[in-house]
Amino acid sequence: MSNPPGTADHVLLPGHDVPLGRYTTVRRLLPHRDRRMVGAWCFVDHFGPDDVAGRPGMRVPPHPHTGLQTVTWLVDGLVEHRDSLGSHQFIAPGQLNLMTSGHGIAHSEHTPPEHPDSAHGLQLWIALPEDARHGPARFEHHAELPSYQEGPVTVTVVAGELGGRRSPARVHSPLVGAELIYTAAGRHRLGVDPAFEHAVLVMSGAATVAGTELQPGSLLFVSGGRTTLDLEVAGTARLFLIGGEPFDEPLVMWWNFVGRSHDDIIRAREEWMAGAERFGVVGGCEADPLPAPELPTVRLKARDRHGRTW
């Protein structure tokens, strides 16, 4: 296997297109064959900007999750969230939906019939550590998040802590998720936690990050041990930063489940298909629950953040 462009501590991870339902295609950036995680962040999908004028937009029927937190972040559009806890929440740009699956939850996500003409955003997962993955499910919506101006960039702290500001969202490991908006060309040295590894994606515009040119559709991984991250943009741009302490627990990730073993995944799939109480029922959604795909014929193996099997 050839290494992606970059140096030992800068690795460019190109995304690939994945259909999400009938009407939406996303660029999947994590997990990647060369880097499965960044801190506890284990999944990153970037969708849009898409023209959804006169179109249904996102149509994701009820489906299950275990062992993770979902983060929904919009730049454009509107999404309607329902889950098996009874939560019903619309999310607009600049707001955060954080759903913690714990032992199990189900949810649906739809673009409502009356919606803006453009859809653009991120769907991310955070892996729950062992001491949190068996806990109860919960849902949080945060309409206001801390932000600050630093040179040419406005930073919004979506999750964790950055620049002395902390998001109100409840997470279970040391991490950061932040949006960086540039309204003009400029250079910027962002202070970061040296205990964290980081990654940056460009949602719009273009940027040079830690000396590497970055366009929409790729994720740049940057190793830990640094106190600053150099960023430069030639014009308006929107970036998203993720990071965290290296996550040392091996994971099995399959479909919408994050577990620790093949048996974890088998059990979750069987219980979802049987309609077990573990996942509950998503009320108010007319779509049928999404059936789980067939399991592979080989035993699923736990892998560490580098992709090595255990």
TrEMBL record:
Residues 184-275 form the Pirin C-terminal domain. Belongs to the pirin family. Pfam families: Pirin, Pirin_C. SUPFAM superfamilies: RmlC-like cupins. This is Pirin family protein. InterPro entries: Pirin, Pirin_C_dom, Pirin_N_dom, RmlC-like_jellyroll, RmlC_Cupin_sf. Residues 26-126 form the Pirin N-terminal domain.
